[in-house]
């Protein structure tokens, strides 16, 4: 099914908006992919280090970048918002002994990885696509889902 001319025009505007912010997105992506960020955050989860509680701050920074490219100020989809709520709460005042480590910290890693994925897709398709495609790739379709466009 081919998009209507109005829908196609909106898709071109969305991509143009991403392209306009591409240097900022790529800069953030480099920071997120750096070993002291990505590898360290995941390592800290598996090492049971409280440094894993640094991930929510980074996740929130990524979310600010993703919000800046939101088409027409659209909110994120409900699924991503739920992941963010669970994964950006930060370090609790006291570690709950009743819950295992992974129960407390896995949402932090999940939120970070989902935010990283959407940042990667925005940078990738902002760089690779000359224009909005008629046939959607999985990553581009995921970005459209993020903003509840698809």
Counting DSSP E segments of at least 2 residues, the number of strands comes to 0
Major pleated sheet: none
Compute the CA-based radius of gyration: 17 Å
Order of helices and strands: HHHHHHH
Number of helices: 7
Structural class: mainly alpha
Q: What is the 3D shape?
A: elongated
What does this entry look like structurally?
The protein has one domain (5-146). The mean pLDDT is 87. Helix 4 (55-68) runs parallel beside helix 6, helix 5 (78-87) packs across helix 6 and helix 6 (101-128) crosses helix 7 (138-146). The chain starts with a helix and ends with a helix. The chain is mostly helical. It is built from 7 helices and no strands. 65% of the residues lie in helices and 0% in strands.
Q: SSE layout and pairings?
A:
Blueprint lengths: L4 H16 L1 H12 L4 H9 L8 H14 L9 H10 L13 H28 L9 H9 L4
Defining key terms:
150 residues, mainly alpha
Brief sketch in words of this structure:
This protein is an all-alpha fold.
């Amino acid at each position: 099914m081919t998009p209507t001319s109005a829908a196609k025009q909106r898709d071109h505007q969305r991509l143009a908006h991403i392209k306009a912010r591409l240097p900022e997105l790529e800069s953030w992506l480099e920071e997120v992919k750096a070993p002291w960020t990505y590898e360290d955050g995941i390592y800290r989860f598996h090492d049971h280090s409280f440094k894993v509680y640094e991930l929510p701050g980074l996740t929130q920074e990524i979310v600010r970048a993703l919000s800046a490219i939101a088409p027409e100020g659209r909110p994120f989809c409900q699924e991503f918002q739920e992941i963010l709520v669970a994964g950006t709460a930060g370090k609790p005042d006291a570690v709950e002994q009743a819950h295992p480590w992974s129960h407390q910290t896995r949402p932090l890693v999940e939120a970070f990885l989902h935010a990283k994925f959407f940042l990667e897709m925005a940078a990738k398709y902002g760089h690779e696509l000359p224009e909005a495609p008629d046939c959607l790739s999985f990553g581009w379709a995921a970005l459209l889902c993020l903003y509840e466009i698809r």
